[in-house]
# Entry
Amino acid sequence: EGRSRERYRRMALTSLVSALARGIAVLTSLISVPLTVNYLGAERYGMWMTASSVIALLGFADLGMGSGLLNAISEADGKDDRIAAQKYVSSAFYMLLGIATLILLGFTTIYSFMPWERLFNVVTEQAINEAGPSMAIFVIILAINMPLGIAQRVQLGYQEGYRTHLWGVAGSLLGFGGVLLVIYLQAGLPWLVLAMSGGPCFAMLLNWLELFCHSRIWLFPRWTSFDSAITRKVVGTGMLFLILQIMTLIGSSSDNLV
# Structure
């Protein structure tokens, strides 16, 4: 009965903090979008929206392992099995780290051969010079976020979503502050991309460190706890979520890409 009440308390707290996080995200967007449109101009702003939509469509590159990990952590918590939870976290972390490394290696290989200005259909000299570096920053942030994102899934699995959303608020505010600073300094689009994406990424890193180095030290990913059988289980569950992810991303991001 006590655990049941605690679950409901955490559900309510997570809902409230989630509403706060969404409100702040909407507010910062309402302020930052007009600022960035006026600062970048139509062509460079369009390039930014296209690049960010492409990166959003790559969100399924984790093969649904994040969602699979969430389910596995919930199961381990229900059984009060710390050893299984540690194996799930370690296996998912190193798999995602490997996927992120492959993405970076692949992008590095093709970067110098890609006609970025033609892909983004830009014609001004400034936009042509910024196309490649801006896309590179997007891809690097994406790769960094993949292994760091397991902290959020672990928190959701333990019904501590309010912690995830609080760090999300911090990331939104950091990104918004970075955008204002870049506009004030009249820096280029790559710096704007770094500010907007780097703020949430830095908050995610702090969340990862707080979770695995302070709150739940016993969950810290260790190579010795990597288990191929557990990895297959997480991936198998995640594939079902992967299909949903792909359809959702197509529906929410394809319009910006078009």
